[in-house]
Amino acid sequence: MNKTVLITGSTSGIGLAIAIQFAKEGYQIMFHGLEPNGQDIAKEVGERYKVKVAISNANLLSSEDVENLIAQTIGIFGHLHVLVNNAGIQYVSPIEDFPNSKYENIIGINMNAVFYASKAVWNQMKRQQFGRIINISSVHGLRASEFKSAYVAAKHGVIGLTKVLALEGAPFNITCNAICPGYVKTPLVEGQIIDQAKAHKMTKEEVIEKVMLKKQAVKQFVSVEAIADMALLLAKDTSSTITGTSFALDGGWSAQ
User: Fold this and answer.
1) How far is CA 58 from CA 27, 72, 133, in A?
2) Is residue 183 annotated as part of the catalytic site, yes or no?
3) Which among 91, 116, 151, 183 is annotated as catalytic?
4) What's the mean per-residue pLDDT of the chain?
5) At how many degrees (to 10) do helices 149-169 and 100-107 cross?
6) How many CA atoms lie within 13 Å of 12's alpha carbon, on the beta-carbon side?
7) pLDDT digits over 132-180, tens only?
8) Nearby residues of 60 by Cβ (< 8 Å), 6 or more positions away
9) Taking the complete model, does pTM exceed 0.90, yes or no?
């Protein structure tokens, strides 16, 4: 039986890289994303690797939509073995100028949706006595940076939730771990470069050198492939004792 994975935010960036890696291993994939050509992206991956795929554009701000996404995935594929909570948004601003609506949306997408999805899939994973929940947090779940109050709060929250789910899932062979990347060259980060340039009054090149990669010992963006490889490891049957842990893929940032 081919296992099934649901990856939120999987029509671009980190999520798409994870989807491709799982497809290579024969996983059936429920894609999720808001790209206009998302259907084509999912279909192309499915055809290339000969795996069954489907796609949803569920609104992760809505608990009902997230519950329906889980139910839809189980309805289409018959089961759901791996949940990758990857979808995220970002906004950079000094706190005194930070719009409340931006704060609420970042908490909603980056943290609350992780809770909604994990809760919704829990009984299915208990019944099948197997579950792997992989939360894409961030090095900002371990460290803080200026002008990212909502994002840092959400990503710290995800790590706390990860630990709780690991403890509750242990009797049922359900693991929960967090991957904490440093800066990855994704559309989200491309947007951050522009926002940071405005906030710091720098050029984009200066932001990359003096802000983004300044804290990393390895002066390179983290590759999406490295994150996808880590997710695949955590999903394995043999990873049953790896749980409640946060894995920093951050070029040595959190080593300091």
Assistant:
1) 21, 10, 19
2) no
3) 151
4) 96
5) 20
6) 16
7) 999 999 999 999 999 999 999 999 999 999 999 999 999 999 999 999 9
8) 8, 66, 87, 108, 109, 113, 116
9) yes
